[in-house]
TrEMBL record:
Domain HNH: 107-150
Keyword terms of this UniProt record: Endonuclease, Hydrolase, Nuclease
Name of the protein this chain belongs to: HNH endonuclease
Native source species: Ignatzschineria indica
Molecular-function GO term, any one: nucleic acid binding
A Pfam family of this chain: HNH
Gene3D superfamilies according to UniProt: 1.10.30.50
Domain of life: Bacteria
InterPro entries, per the entry: HNH (IPR002711)
């Protein structure tokens, strides 16, 4: 996971642009949609101010559901949001553009699947007035979006997932993995642990996030492929005049370098670094490849 930059321009102006982009609809009732939503815009902007105030304090938990719109008005407000429309496409591009003009395409809630939606941080079903608020939209994959669903606050009045615009991720490791040899394969078990003195409040948010999105299990499903790929990489390195220790040290450094880009707690980096230090894995590789390769070379 990594933090992303939030929308930095006027949310009110963004709303105006979205409303302005709406087209006349066939068979629309009178008054037409664009006229109806324009009439509601001043009220929506007042709601936006409430969101901005809570956002600045990183305290979205203080948002209060207000049933100030009737069902038809709520429907109209929700229809402001369209993932595929021009202004939301541009919003997504702005959020996902990193330094060096590099584009992210992987969901940062999970770091597994491709982005295919916006998560409404404050759910549409509870807060329809924030449906088109640009700071309430976070690029996500469909799996994470579905798992989070309409969840808002847990029993401790905390958000179910991290707000990766505001909850600054620690630069220390909190995701760990236990790798155990079982016959000719390896079992993998991910776990969270606050062994590096992360702020307890932030670590609790991280735990909530991983639990809500079922990340530890989802990471485990990817493990066998990562281990097989890592084994193949070592096998290819063995073709060159390097000691086994040099190969492991090189791969460890490569993974450490990747961690600076994708994050120390990226599940793939965590597995690879553990493999570099895992006695059973290194013994397995040595017995399977080392003697044969060195004898025939």
């Amino acid at each position: 996971m990594r933090n992303l930059k939030h929308y930095s321009e006027s949310s009110s102006d963004f709303l105006d642009k979205v409303i302005q982009s709406k087209r006349t609809r066939k068979n629309d009732i009178s008054p037409p949609y664009k006229e109806r939503i324009t009439t509601l815009s001043s009220r929506i902007k007042k709601n936006f101010e409430e969101y901005e105030n809570c956002f600045e304090r990183n305290n979205l938990e203080d948002l209060t559901p207000r049933h100030t719109y009737n069902s038809k008005e709520e429907k109209d407000i929700k229809e402001l949001y369209s993932y595929s429309s021009t202004h939301f496409k541009q919003l997504r591009k702005n959020i996902l553009t990193l330094d060096g003009n590099r584009q992210l395409d992987t969901c940062q809630y999970c770091t597994i699947d491709s982005i295919s939606s916006f998560d409404h941080i404050a759910p549409q079903s509870i807060f329809p007035q924030f449906s088109a608020h640009p700071k309430n939209l976070f690029p996500a994959c469909s799996i994470c979006n579905t798992k989070k669903g309409n969840a808002w606050l847990n029993q401790n009045s905390e958000l179910h997932v991290l707000n990766l615009y505001l909850d600054i991720l620690p630069e220390t490791q909190y995701l760990f993995v236990k790798i155990t040899k079982e016959d000719d394969s390896f079992s993998v078990s991910f776990f969270l642990e606050n062994r590096n003195n992360i702020c307890p409040e932030l670590f609790q948010k991280i735990e909530n996030h991983y639990t809500t999105l079922n990340l530890l299990e989802r990471f485990s499903h990817k493990a066998s492929g990562i281990i097989s790929e890592f084994e193949t990489t070592i096998k290819n390195f063995l073709k060159y005049p390097l000691t086994f220790e040099d190969i492991i040290q090189t791969l460890s450094q490569i993974t450490a370098d990747k961690s600076r880009i994708t994050g120390l707690n990226h599940y793939k980096n965590v597995i690879e670094l553990e493999l570099c230090n895992n006695y059973e894995f290194k013994k397995f590789i040595s017995s399977k490849y080392l003697t044969t390769n060195r004898t025939t070379s």
